[in-house]
Every structure is written in structure tokens, then in C-alpha cells.
Amino acid sequence: MAGTEDIANDDVEVPLYASPANVLKLLKVEQKRNKLDSQKNELQQQADSAISSLYKNILLYVAYTGGIIYFHTTELPSAIAFNVSILSMCLFMTGLFFHTSWAKSMITRRDGYIEFFAERHKRLRVDARILVELENNRRRRRLAANIADNSEGPLIDMASFMTRCKTIYDAADFYDFLKVYHKKINLSWVLGGVYVLFVLIIAFFNYYYKQGQDYSFSD
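User: That's the sequence. What structure does it adopt?
Assistant: C-alpha cells below.
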């Protein structure tokens, strides 16, 4: 991490420029980084689509089973309502398991791509750090020798060069991608668990409430 300290604490005392060779290398690194970012964005869109579909299906199941439970509490005898409520809950859990597993497989199936991208990203970070170290050494030698910089070719002042290298070095890691989407998938399981508890409570309440009504009518 030697290069990062130089990036963060870089005070340019004289107007020096990065060497044309290193500027060209930086431009190539930036091109690779841009291509990598576009591939990451494409993966992110696919993952967003899978998560969005998962949440829509969860809402659909919630609305569907919620409507059935309301029908139970108003129309069906207590024993039948209880059994159908439990059946509805089981159907909901089956659907939730299917759709959540599908969304998770859609994302984890791309683990190979993500590992490949992460490795390439790591190499870009190393390339950026090496460029920074080369330029810092070059700048120190020139300052010590008091040599004017009359470089020809693509010119980037040192501050801008360091900033662009730092941007590449500090870019978000691809492993963050997996963490975010697996958190969303785990949230769907939590929502399913909360909903199952809700269904059970309503089913038991409905069962005992209607049993009480049945006893009062029989009396």
C-alpha cells in the first residue's frame, strides 16, 4: 500500500508533469476500468431485475393469502378456516422458497464472472499503485536535480495524475456486489418468516374466536 500514502499526501511544489509513457499507461488502465465498470453495471441490472421479480412475487403471495384469510374469518367454520389458513401458509412458503432460491441462483451463478472481474480489478489497482510510485520517484529525482520538465506527448499535471490513479485504486470492490444482493435475498426470508407468524396468529385467533361463537350458539 506504499503508493496510497503518496497519493493521499501529495503536495506538488513545482508545476511538474507526469511522463508521457506513464500517462499512456494510465489511459490504458482507465480504459480497462471503464470496460470493467460497464460489465459490472450490466451484472447489477440483471441482479436488480431478479430481486425486483422476487419482491413482486412476495407481495403477490401476501395479497393472495391475505384475501384468503379474510374470507376464512368471515365465511368458513372454525376448523375448516384453520386448516385452510395453514394450507395457504404452506403454499406461500413453497412459493417464497422457489422464488427466493431462483433469485439467489440467478446472482450466485455469476460468481465465476464476479471472481474474474474482481481479479482484473485487483490488477488495475496494482497498476495504478505502480504508476504512482514511478511518478513519485521520478518527481523526487527531478526536484533533487532541479531539472525542468520539457516532456512531449500527452501531458497530465502531477496533481491530476495522482487523483486519477487514486480514483482507480479506491473504486468499489466487486465483492461488495455479492454482499448487497445476498442481504436483499436474506431480507426476503425475514419478510416470509414475519408473514408466516402473522398467518399463524390470525389462524389460531380465528379458530378460537369461532369456537367460542359455536359454543355460544349451541347454548
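Residues 2-211 form one domain.
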